[in-house]
Amino acid sequence: MTDSIDPGGSNPAPAIPHDGGGSTAGTTMTAARALAAPATVDRAARTVEVVWSTGARARNFVPPLGMITEELDMSPSAVRMDGLRSGSAPVLNTHRKADARDVVGRVVAAQLEAGRGHATLQFSAAADVEPLWQRVADGTLRSVSVGYRVHRYDQVTDPADGIVHRAVDWEPYEISVVPIPVDPAAAMRGADDPTAPATAVEPTLPILDTPTNPTTTQETPMPETTPVAPVADPAPSAPAATPTRSNPAQAAQEGAPTMPNNPPPAADADRGTVAVPPGEAAAEVIRAERARIAALGPVAQAGRALVAPATVDALHQRAVAEGWAPEALRGALWDAMVQGATPPALPASPNSGPAAEDPAVIRDAMAEAIAVRAMPGYQAPGGATGGRHAEFLDWRPSEMVAELMRARGERNIPRGAAALADRAFHTTSDFPLLLSAAANKMLLAAYQPANPTYRQFFLRRDFRDFKPHRHLRVGDFPTLVQLSENGEIQAGTMSESQELVNLLTFARRIRVTRQMLVNDDLGAFTDFAAMIGRRVADFENATAYALMNSANGSGPTLVTGNAAVFATGAARANQASAGTALDLTNLALGRAAVMKQKTLDGLPISVGNGMRLLVGPNLELAARQLTVSVAATQTANANVYAGFIQPVVEPQIQGNRWYLFADPMAAPVYVYGYLNGAEGPQVTTGPVSGVDGVEVSVIFDFGVGAIDWRGAWFNPGT
Length: 718
Fold this sequence. Notes:
By secondary structure, this protein is an alpha+beta fold. Helices cover about 25% and strands about 20% of the residues. It folds into four domains: about 5-225, no CATH class; about 255-345, no CATH class; about 360-440, no CATH class; about 455-470 and about 505-718, phage-related protein like fold (Alpha-Beta Complex). It has helices spanning about 80-85, 130-135, 250-255, 265-270, 280-305, 310-320, 325-340, 360-375, 395-405, 415-425, 430-445, 515-520, 525-550, 585-595, 620-625; strands at about 5, 20-25, 30-35, 40, 45-55, 60, 65-70, 90-95, 105-115, 115-125, 145-160, 160-180, 190, 195-200, 460, 470, 500, 505-515, 610-615, 645-650, 660, 670-675, 680-685, 695-705, 710-715.
């Protein structure tokens, strides 16, 4: 299992060299691609149908590869759809996830059809979501963007685009409503004719000081590599109307903003890249690049009062991509205004949105700065702070306390570290909130990309409370019967022996004391926050596999039949009577055994779109050979299970054991869940009794259990 590695945004950043061929397997990456998908709206149900991907090629920045030409494989064998089909995948506002209010709905259905990803989104009825929903319903907002993780790339060479990174194993996990898409091939689904496609609009790329760039989401740090800057593209003879792949004529037709004909002189001096030396020099280059990009955000924001927003967005994107200094961007914005770009009407109140001196904005910027310092490679989003975290990168904790007090309007701020520590712990200070925000950012950055393997064949069902939860099994709900002539609907019964699954709470805490603050030493706190996220994900995975590995791999005892999940008797018949090798013959026997299983009503179970083959390290080679696609010239040499069985390799599977699981959405065997959908650990802060300090606690509510034996097969192996 490899750690997930997320792109660090669309900022120009060092990339690792490659030879133009082969595969980048072994590194999991997370990204988001903006796709145009105008919708069919059902106002009563508050739903909309979207096309969330067509797999079209696009330029994308992906650490540690750098700026690449990316293409998504839309075949069913390449896309892990479990998360998007779970019914709990979120619909976000422009990929924002810093606040619970950023979740505006959920994905209620998702599928792949003819190389396109389709989904049905349902929007919340909450008051703060209503303005966004109305824009969707009236057709003002017609575009979506998908957030996804790439587990493996294959590299191909194209005469036109050069090296293309094709995502052949990737996983969508959220869909966002965005103002501007990237995929020019995504087509709308109109309300008048749901089957008739309409022309998709090639958009401009949005500015980078939003919480999450529509082309990338940021969750985990970059690995430690020796960065080499990408080769700079040759300077164009004249700037494009928009930073898109459209030609100028097309851009003019689509209403792209007019750009200045000449790039600012200062930009030429700042444009381009050079080879980056290793070690500390490379780190210094990265820090300088981050500071440059952060400084562009306030310049672009100020320009929006005088220049059309589309022009500002295009210039900002170009400034980031081509290495402009803030002064160069400021000059380009001035030129755009002078050359007649249509300015919007000046707002009656220029202070729209959070003010720069808002304590909440300052606190969030400080939290980002602490996270950046504690986790090398952590990419701080622009968001409401507009990249302001760079201002606080070198600040001591006591200085942050003083600044937060000043932002609150307090007078007579102490100068000494000891007095500041007393004020931080004994008044209504923002310091505990700062610690909580910083811990949460670091924790989530490590936890979210981990993606434990058990989730590929466990079904997620969240808990409402801590009482034992009953779960329906395959066939527990009575089958339908033909309606009689008199119209009477017959009553059915449900099983009384449903399986119970319990939710448990796990927690750890760390103290930030007065002495730590006086000494300006938060090392223990930042180490704890940076490490606990990954540890929680590992704990999740270990808890799930401990349940599976019980009884020598047969699993826990079920109420039904008073037997383990896997057994050889007639009541189960889902375990091989004697361990056999993992080969084509035995794999066929196991798959047939699963497909012959019956529901409580005596009907064949559904195995879903594909099965999962779970093995340990000993059988990885055999598992991948049995499931890989083979370009055979003879039928006898074709791999019949390619695309129908997906291998899952987990080090916690012991010896030569191997399992077959049906799609958990069709026939769940094991389930997992969190309290009220709160995935991952939760961070809280509070005072320490009898001690000057703050306790930072991490609480994790998590439950796993077995609910059925149908839909799986176990072979102890040889």
